[in-house]
UniProtKB/TrEMBL annotation:
GO terms for molecular function: protein-lysine N-methyltransferase activity. Residues 14-252 form the SET domain. It comes from the Eukaryota. Keywords: Methyltransferase, S-adenosyl-L-methionine, Transferase. GO terms for biological process: methylation. Coiled coil: none annotated. Gene3D superfamilies: Rubisco LSMT, substrate-binding domain, set domain protein methyltransferase, domain 1. InterPro entries: Rubisco_LSMT_subst-bd_sf, SET_dom, SET_dom_sf, SETD3_SETD6_MTase. This is SET domain-containing protein.
Length: 443
């Protein structure tokens, strides 16, 4: 089945086609296309969404499992994953319009979810925040798979055939593949009134053809649902498209951690990149409640135990510095007003703690990158593995760059504070890199 022939029933711009170039499939234009042109019109009925699925008899009887609050509720991602698996492996959903498009999904993905320990890509991520995030996500996915399997078994036991596939007919690896198809190809579509009116509803769905656009942060291509025709329109944006060019979509301001984890690629010099670090305000810290309250009053968005973002310009989040200042204080010396106390001593201690943590984090990443680079020579001929590794390397190098820049800023600040004297580290604050909200939705 050619990728382009399945779109023949859609209204597509005649210059556009889906094909692979240099091993990368995407949307390309054979001719110049003017700005603000309609590139495609996709009927809502051809999309894969919860609403579309629930209008199918097989899925409508599952709706009792879809209570958003119930303990046995099925998430939208789960529902779409089940449908994708059915489209790809059975004839049960042959009648839905989306069916042929699910068969075009890649067979493998390059997310760290799929990296095997000992592979170049996996080992390049050792010591990075992403490896920990990935492990958390994998644990979560495994639990979700077990829950889904038992829900579908429960459904099967209460209903006549056709039955949903369970156990060996829907193993974990098939679930993860289907789920990753949702992560990497899903789009949020707004349903609402006309121009200027508020969005009434937003639904996550896979829109055929739209799911073939690769990402570029430069792209002005955008899409919009039209209630008048029940179609999703894709527009070229304010700039024209050149003949022979790949046509991209902007997936949004996404850091490399999220691109690699949820889409399976990363970008060199990604302006949106950041590194998460975590300074736990754990149970058992003396005066924990008072310290959390003080920080929340100073920084209204402060959430204890949430990660702090380090950006590529090395800027230090004020709330991170304040937390480091407050953390070692005995409860009796906490101020009564909302100002977090700064003294030369507390400042030097806070900066020293951060410096030590950043040093250890960047060393871990650098060691892994060096070790893997040394092994590349021995891996001649494993081209596919090298391609996966390339995305992992870009991610890890960017993390290292951000950590090093931030470390430079911290050292400079510390030098100013101590006048160049080596201060003794007076606090022991464990700063760890940690997961970036593992089940965060993909934008
Ligand atoms: C929405 S799909 C785009 C179509 C996809 N290339 C295909 O062949 O089905 C998203 C996937 O495309 C790939 N992709 C998108 N943008 C990319 C980019 N800028 N560089 C490398 N791969 C990209 C990733 O594999 C991602 O998971």
């Amino acid at each position: 089945m050619s990728a382009s022939s399945v779109y023949s029933s859609f209204t597509l711009h005649p210059s556009l086609a889906v094909f692979s170039q240099d091993g990368k499939r995407g949307v390309y234009s054979s001719d110049d296309i003017e700005e603000n042109t309609v590139l495609a019109k996709i009927p809502l009925s051809a999309t894969l969404s919860k609403t579309q699925l629930l209008s199918h008899p097989l899925f409508s009887s599952l709706s009792s499992f879809l209570s958003p609050t119930g303990p046995s509720s099925l998430s939208t991602d789960d529902l779409l994953a089940v449908a994708i698996h059915l489209c790809r492996t059975t004839a049960l959903l042959d009648t839905i319009s989306f069916n042929p498009f699910a068969k075009l999904f890649p067979r493998t993905y390059k997310s760290p979810i799929f990296f095997a320990p000992g592979s170049l890509s996996y080992d390049a991520l050792r010591g990075t925040s992403l490896l920990r995030t990935t492990q958390v996500l994998q644990g979560q996915i495994q639990q979700d798979h077990e829950r889904l399997n038992s829900l579908l078994k429960q459904y099967n036991s209460l209903h006549e055939e056709p039955h949903f596939p369970v156990d060996e007919d829907f193993p974990l690896e098939c679930y993860v593949h289907s789920l990753f198809s949702v992560y990497s190809r899903g789009a949020d579509v707004n349903f609402g009134g006309g121009d200027g009116e508020e969005v009434v509803n937003r639904e996550r769905m896979i829109v055929p053809f739209l799911d073939m656009f690769n990402h570029s942060s430069e792209s002005e291509v955008h899409y919009k649902y039209s209630a008048d025709s029940s179609d999703i329109y894709i527009y070229s944006g304010a700039s024209p498209i050149k003949a022979g060019a790949e046509v991209h979509l902007n997936y949004g301001p996404v850091p490399n951690s999220k691109l690699l984890l949820f889409y399976g690629f990363s970008i060199q010099d990604n302006k949106e990149d950041f590194v998460d670090i975590y300074v736990p305000l754990q149970e058992g810290v003396p005066g924990r409640e008072e310290k959390a309250k003080l920080l929340q009053e100073t920084f209204p968005g402060f959430i204890p135990n949430a990660p702090f973002q380090l950006k590529s310009d090395g800027s230090l989040p004020c709330s991170l510095l304040s937390l480091l200042r407050v953390l070692p204080l005995p409860p009796s010396s906490l101020p009564s007003d909302v100002m977090v106390p700064i003294s030369a001593e507390s400042e030097a201690s806070a900066l020293s703690a951060l410096e030590a943590a950043l040093e250890s984090m960047s060393q871990n990443v650098a060691i892994s990158l060096l070790e893997v680079a040394g092994r590349i020579e021995d891996r001649e001929g494993v081209e596919e593995e090298k391609e996966d590794y390339e995305f992992a390397r870009i991610y890890a190098e960017s993390e290292l760059q951000i950590l090093s820049t931030t470390l430079g800023v911290v050292r400079e600040a510390k030098e100013k504070e101590t006048g160049g004297k080596q201060e003794e580290v007076q606090v022991e604050v464990q700063v760890e890199m940690v997961k970036e909200g593992a089940m965060e939705s993909v934008d």
